[in-house]
Amino acid sequence: MEIKHLSVLAAVCVGFSAAQSCKIELINVNQAVVDSACIAVNGLALMTDTSARQGPAKYWVGVNSSCGVSLPTGQALADGASLRNAGRC
After folding, report:
1. Which of 2, 10, 63, 81 could cross-link with 77 by S-S, CB 3.0 to 4.6 Å?
2. Would you say the C-alpha torsion 55, 50, 39, 66 has a positive or negative sign?
3. What does UniProt give as the signal peptide span (predicted)?
4. Would you give the distance in Å from CA 42 to the centre of its chain?
5. Distance between CA atoms of 89 and 38, rounded to whole angstroms?
6. Is the pTM of this model over 0.85?
7. Around Cβ 26, how many Cβ atoms within 10 Å?
8. What is the three-class DSSP state of 16?
9. What Å distances lie between residue 37 and 4, 43, 60, CA to CA?
């Protein structure tokens, strides 16, 4: 009986931790998804646009608890590029 309860608790914990991340997509000037990442809430991930005109562009992308995205101060997306919230992951 104890093992069954432990398995259920472990499944609940895994589900909870997975829901604490956001799937973010990096969109290029042609509106194509060029990278995606599952980023932990209040965390950062490095995303890369290999199709950028000036060569591969790398961005540190952060998310808040509402899956809103941000870039560190001084960093900006290339012209025509954008970030999209694709939900929880």
Report:
1. 81
2. positive
3. 1-21
4. 11
5. 6
6. no
7. 23
8. helix
9. 34, 11, 11
* CATH (residue range 2-88): 2.10.70.110
Give how far the C-alpha of residue 20 lies from the chain's centroid of Cα atoms, to the nearest Å. 11
pLDDT tens across the length of the chain (89 residues)? 444 443 333 443 444 444 699 999 999 999 999 999 999 999 999 999 999 888 899 999 999 999 999 999 999 999 899 999 999 99
Q: Rounded distance, CA 68 to CA 41, Å?
A: 9
Written as six digits, the tokens of 44 are 């950062």
Cα dist from 36 to 6, 9, 13, 49, 88, whole Å: 34, 30, 24, 10, 12
Strands 69-70 and 57-63: antiparallel
Separation of alpha carbons 34 and 45, rounded Å: 15
d(Cα 24, Cα 40) in Å, to the nearest integer? 10
